[in-house]
Design goal:
Radius of gyration: 32 Å
Shape: elongated
Number of domains: 2
Structural class: alpha/beta
CATH architecture of the largest domain: Up-down Bundle
Strand order of the largest sheet: 5-6-4-3-7-10-15-14-11-12-13
Oligomer: single chain
CATH topology of the largest domain: Na+/H+ antiporter like fold
CATH class of the largest domain: Mainly Alpha
Number of helices: 26
């Protein structure tokens, strides 16, 4: 039959065998590529041909999802909610009510392409999830995670078995029993990728709760998958004529695992050995690993396993981190997690039809089952967590996190829907339950767990309240070796002696690549980092500093491997645990020896801004230009630009500690307004006068202290004097925050490109400044109160 082009060409063939038996075949001729829009109807170009129609479908699904996410993320709802709602809008529940529009946009013959893309995306999503996981983490987790993890899986499993037997006898019809059993089994899964994604959405992956949730989820995932696979093989044996089928399936599964372990893992290690240190693996290696993923999927499907298990086990066999794991995640993550994997969720949402519900009795049973399974999971997590001395609120948040549902459960529901274990009504209710649980879980965890509350009451951790003859605790952060060298120069000027020692806690920040677990490595415990020679150089710089000031300086070094958006949690938590008085952060801009700017990192800037907002102590951002200065100097000239306020007082307090060393020459320049009644409040003026009085008294007894005042009318005069200081000092210290009505800074705020530095610090950190002066911008501790 040849038609006018509006529908695919369909041809019928009849083949007659010698035995006079005729077999009929139907061949569909799909038109894939459009010849173009010239001289044709644009609508026909998109809707008549498969490829343009697929591109339009993807663009429409992506646009609706992103639009919903931009709106709903303001209410702290995860991306999964937007993806499911986009499916509801574009699917049978809403758009599908108009058969004319829905039939043109999503015709039945075109569904195979979206279905195929979504499954490919999910396969690689599961593979990358396995790559990011480190099975050795299970062996390193503490008894708390093991206790919670095992009980979390075992208790719901027994509870699910009890409910299955009860419903099987009294409440569920025989033909509905397979659907009910599969619902209970899927509800009792604890997929690690879902938990990791939720922690990223909530921005608590690096918190104490997040680390416990990741460790527990990894144990739960492995134990539940083992139990689920064993039950599946048992069912296969029950369905066959003998138990030989179960033995055969188990044997093939073991062969698949052995193939991955003795073929896939050696190939991955060979790729790593042939890659130079510090370099990503070659493109051909990424292609070969992708091909191996597809081969393993084919084998998994033919041995009787769900197609996701093969890629997941292969991902576990690939060594996480650089170079192979990091390169695979870097090359594939954006496409897979950004487009293809969410496509499965949206496509499942499109299959939902909330407008047609008939068997309300069984749908009630479905919701009762979901509620019962969820209740058992929550109790099974909350109880052991409380017994392991997890606080009640944190235990409740942990229960909500581990019992959350996401794309993994969605894939199992869709698999049963395609196999007709679930009808459309059941599938619609299960998909809706994922939507509701994802939304409510995120909101409740956001309400129950606020990481910043741990700093409440953490007061007077600053330099002003630290006596000169007591230990000064400083946390230094570094991304590069240059950052450590710059921090060492500041620490040397901090006058470490046996009478006033300095305790240095150095954290080397490494971006997490190819891993899902953030790591905090304590080098005092003999733990080694995978950062390579760069991390070792950073460790050596501060180790030699400790030897230089033996007895006056103690150094403890850490390596924090984390995602960029969560690094500030590691910094603030470490400062809190070590009772630090000051955090020194490296500036996000770097200069070379000639004074030319070579780096301007927005990600490093965001880390600094987050630390300033969250820090439990005072914070200083170090703008390092000392590499420009020629030769070594016997004295270190420090200038303090004092305008008044708590941040300026903190900067001056640090400078007063430095000036105890005769090698440091301090000049305090106080900028005074012509209007003596303008500016700071009366209380601030009293505090300013007190600390300046102490400085003036010191200047009468010490030759290395100079105090002077400069009267200025506005910010323009201030800028001229500050620029004059650039030539005279090695280091200029300024406070970050000042009152908006400060006359001395009038007009400077309008040109402030970097608010985290304040108006004066921003002026001194200008990228085109060629002077070799370094700048330390100080923010006094932000006191957090109980809300």
């Amino acid at each position: 039959m040849n038609n006018d082009g509006n529908t695919p060409d369909i041809f019928f063939f009849g083949i007659q065998n010698p035995g006079n038996v005729t077999y009929d075949f139907c061949h569909v001729d799909l038109q894939l590529h459009s010849p173009g829009v010239w001289g044709r109807n644009l609508a026909d170009t998109f809707f008549q041909y498969a490829l343009p129609r697929l591109q339009l479908q993807l663009a429409l699904m992506f646009f609706v999802t992103q639009s919903l996410h931009l709106l709903l993320r303001r209410f702290h709802l995860p991306r999964l909610v937007s993806e499911i709602l986009a499916g509801f809008i574009l699917g049978r529940s809403f758009l599908g009510q108009s058969q004319e529009i829905y039939g043109k946009l999503f015709p039945r013959e075109g569904e195979v392409f979206i279905d195929l893309l979504s499954k490919i995306g999910y396969i690689f999503f599961i593979f990358l999830s396995g790559v990011k996981m480190d099975p050795k983490t299970v062996l390193r987790t503490g008894i708390k995670a093991w206790t919670i993890g095992v009980l979390t899986v075992v208790l719901p499993a027994f509870g699910g078995l009890y409910f299955t037997l009860g419903f099987q006898r009294y409440y569920v019809h025989k033909y509905r029993l397979p659907a009910y059993k599969n619902i209970v089994a899927i509800q009792n899964l604890f997929p690690f990728p879902v938990v990791a994604s939720m922690l990223v959405d909530l921005k608590i992956m690096n918190s104490e709760l997040g680390r416990l949730a990741l460790a527990t989820a990894l144990i739960c995932d492995m134990v539940s998958n083992f139990i689920f696979t064993a039950i599946s093989h048992g069912r296969i044996g029950q369905m066959g004529f003998t138990s030989v089928i179960a033995v055969h399936s188990t044997f093939l599964t073991v062969c698949l695992i052995l193939f991955i372990v003795f073929v896939g893992r050696p190939v991955a290690r060979w790729m790593i050995r042939t890659t130079p240190e510090g370099k990503p693996v070659a493109r051909i290696h990424v292609i070969l690993m992708s091909l191996m993923v597809l081969i393993v999927v084919l084998i998994s499907d033919n041995v009787g396993l769900h197609y996701m298990y093969g890629p997941f086990i292969l991902g576990l066999a690939v060594p996480d981190g650089p170079p192979l794991g990091a390169t695979l995640v870097d090359r594939l993550e954006t496409l897979v997690s950004g487009l293809l994997a969410p496509l499965l969720v949206t496509y499942c949402g499109m299959k939902v039809n909330l407008a047609e519900l008939y068997d309300l009795a069984f749908l009630g049973t479905v919701w009762i089952t979901i509620a019962a399974c969820l209740g058992m999971k929550l109790i099974s997590i909350f109880g052991p967590a409380v017994c392991c001395r997890v606080p009640y609120k944190d235990a409740a948040a942990l229960a909500l996190i581990l019992s959350s549902q996401g794309v993994v459960q969605m894939s199992f529901y869709y698999h049963n829907f395609v196999n007709q274990t679930f009808d459309r009504e059941t599938f619609s209710m299960l998909t809706t339950s994922i939507l509701i649980q994802a939304a409510i879980s995120n909101l409740l965890v956001k309400f129950l767990y606020d990481q910043s509350r741990m700093y409440t009451g953490y007061q007077k951790r600053d330099i002003q309240h630290t006596a000169h003859n007591s230990e000064l605790r400083v946390l230094t952060c570094a991304h590069r070796v240059d950052d450590v060298l710059a921090a060492r120069k500041i620490l040397e000027a901090s006058f470490p002696t046996k009478e006033s020692p300095v305790a240095v806690y150095a954290v080397h920040l490494v971006e997490l690549a190819g891993r899902a677990h953030p790591l905090l490595i304590d080098h005092q415990l003999g733990q080694k980092s995978s950062g390579g020679t760069r991390t070792q150089k950073m460790i050596d710089v501060l180790s030699s500093f400790e030897q230089q000031y033996l007895g006056a300086v103690t150094v403890q070094q850490f390596t924090a491997m984390s995602l960029i958006q969560f690094m500030h949690h590691d910094i603030c938590t470490l400062a809190f645990n070590k009772l630090a008085s000051l955090i020194i952060l490296p500036f996000h801009r770097k200069w070379n020896h000639q004074g030319k700017m070579i780096l301007d990192s927005s990600s490093l800037r965001s880390i600094n801004c987050d630390v300033l907002d969250m820090a439990p102590c005072s914070v200083a951002i170090l703008v390092d230009r000392h590499k420009v200065r020629r030769g070594a100097l016997s004295t270190y000239n420090v200038g303090v630009a004092f305008f008044g306020g708590t941040d300026d007082r903190e900067a001056l307090a640090y400078a007063n500690r430095m000036v105890q060393s005769q090698n440091v020459h301090l000049t305090v320049v106080r900028f005074v307004s012509w209007d003596i009644y303008a500016g700071d409040s009366q209380w601030d003026a009293v505090l300013d006068a007190e600390i300046l009085k102490e400085t003036r008294m010191q200047s009468t007894h010490q030759d290395n202290i100079v105090y002077k005042e400069e009267r200025v009318k506005d910010g323009a005069e201030t800028a001229l004097l500050v620029h004059a200081m650039e030539e005279a000092f090695d280091l200029i210290m300024v406070g970050r925050r000042h009152k908006d009505d400060t006359p001395q800074l009038l007009g400077l705020s309008e040109w402030n490109d970097l608010p985290e530095l304040g108006p004066v610090g921003d002026m001194l950190a200008a990228p085109d400044l060629s002077k070799p002066v370094s700048v330390l911008v100080v923010q006094h501790q932000v006191i957090k109160t109980i809300r």
